[in-house]
């Protein structure tokens, strides 16, 4: 019963540690309570049409075809004649939801969205749509609902297709964009006969938003250089041209409509996005219509050294680059609505068609302009200081909570170590002291009006350290009773343990470290003297060879996404030859010589071929072989020499360091599970092709749980309780490393990798504790399956 209580308490502690990173690192930076600000001047436009081509790269739109023509002739004509263009610089993570939030709300990634799989913001926020009089949206069900959800009222209307349509395996994803354009046409057609709808459309401060997902979906499925991706861009250009003609005709060409065409993010050549490569962060921006400058001819070099102007043949037209969040205040200014309260964007003045008063006294006008520039510079400084203040405010509790969790980690680990050694009786004075500390912490949190989770994080270290301090006599007794050991020997033991744990931590970032570890472990039988045992010699040699074989896997290339035609040919041949051979043998014609040649050639080429699919298939049997040898060496060694108390502890450390090491090797040996946040859907296409990060991540985690289970099923003659506690200590020390390495900035890959490292270690610990509880219950109780004694018949 006592062991079960210990397991349950430990499980609770680790669940708290597991959840703490979301309160410490991933809280929303949004501040509420501010009043929206708007200009009192009359806006140049009555309505805004926003078209977002999801996943469109800047070079894919601006680059001309080899014959000098453009695949987007309508948008090219806008750039060259009636609009202003530039590059919108997005920020990581370059994904659809944060990209649209930056475009429409004017602020960048809300890291607290990690709790909802990055598909929506968990905190309501202001946006241009919310500030508009009416907003009509058409597009993806993953994007549109979050803007309607946060709107103060029912003036944001969404029209979406079913989520099942967003299928990576679709034959033609451009149908998603065709659906949007068709729905918009039907909407305006119906408005002609619907007086109520038409009256709403004729009001000012309206927004029409078209979210086009086809380009992004085709990019994921076929890559951005594919014909499907490029044809989809041409389809969008045609759709935009028809859309503008229809809108202008509906409103009688009143010249009061502004148009913004852009993208939420780009895409790499291999069909992914999320990080900070220029192909992901550079997106096109084309603005035209009411209140927007026409194309401006330039003769002097422009302040851009990236070479894109020459590549795109646009060096003669003024280019105006912006940060993605700058588009939100631009749209708000065009239709005269308040800028969203959480916006950090800066209004790009060069897009606005503002006529200055240069006809009067030139000196006076020049002085006014200099004064305005000076005011702008002061405002920019104020914005910079304010943003720094927001960061300080957002991370104000991080150090305090982090210290509480670290104290809990260190205290729990210390307690487990002391439990392994010995147990002492509690001290009443110590209990009173801890109660006083708990009261002081509670009073402090009450004054701060802290949330309930803060109480858990701050009060948890108190009972943990009480348990440590009441066992403090254990360490003293151990020092007094232990035989004298040279100081250098103790230091060497400490360095070896620290090196082993650090090696496990570094292996999460550099898989080659597993090779180093396996090479060192291959010498274990030799260094420990097991090699000279009569029954262990052969197994020691098998251990040496197994470690060296397994050491090669971390050095092999990780999973790729390009098709392997030679492997497909091998599969076809391997499927055909056995069938032909079976038929020949059935007819008693013997084994054909051609079949023999093909079979041996296939075998040799399969062994020589350095391909991921093959080394992925070989990895499990090699790892299983090495674990089998390990179990036999351990059993033979312990049964042959007997185990004393101190020897048991030393062997336990070795055995369970190996256990943790092999679990990490199972995760990272082939390189395809370096992070559970990998959103490459290719490995789970057999189960689903519609994007769902939780299900896909769960499937990728499930494929490695077999290795954990096989390792946990290992038997040992040592004390089982101590063995489990040693694994717990090693895992907790690794988790403490990764707790400090969690980051809340950068791409989804950076953020998700830091989270997944922590999650992997904590999940391994929690999984082992649950398994230990169940095992203890099942093995410590006698189950009577039948009342009658078993009968044996002669």
Automatic annotation (TrEMBL):
Membrane topology value: Multi-pass membrane protein
GO molecular function: mannose-ethanolamine phosphotransferase activity
Annotated InterPro entries: Alkaline_phosphatase_core_sf, GPI_EtnP_transferase_1, GPI_EtnP_transferase_1_C, Phosphodiest/P_Trfase, PIGN_N
Domain of life assignment: Eukaryota
EC number: 2.-.-.-
Pathway participation: Glycolipid biosynthesis; glycosylphosphatidylinositol-anchor biosynthesis
Subcellular location: Endoplasmic reticulum membrane
Similarity section: Belongs to the PIGG/PIGN/PIGO family. PIGN subfamily.
Role this protein plays: Ethanolamine phosphate transferase involved in glycosylphosphatidylinositol-anchor biosynthesis. Transfers ethanolamine phosphate to the first alpha-1,4-linked mannose of the glycosylphosphatidylinositol precursor of GPI-anchor.
Protein's name in the database: GPI ethanolamine phosphate transferase 1
The species this protein was found in: Amphiprion ocellaris
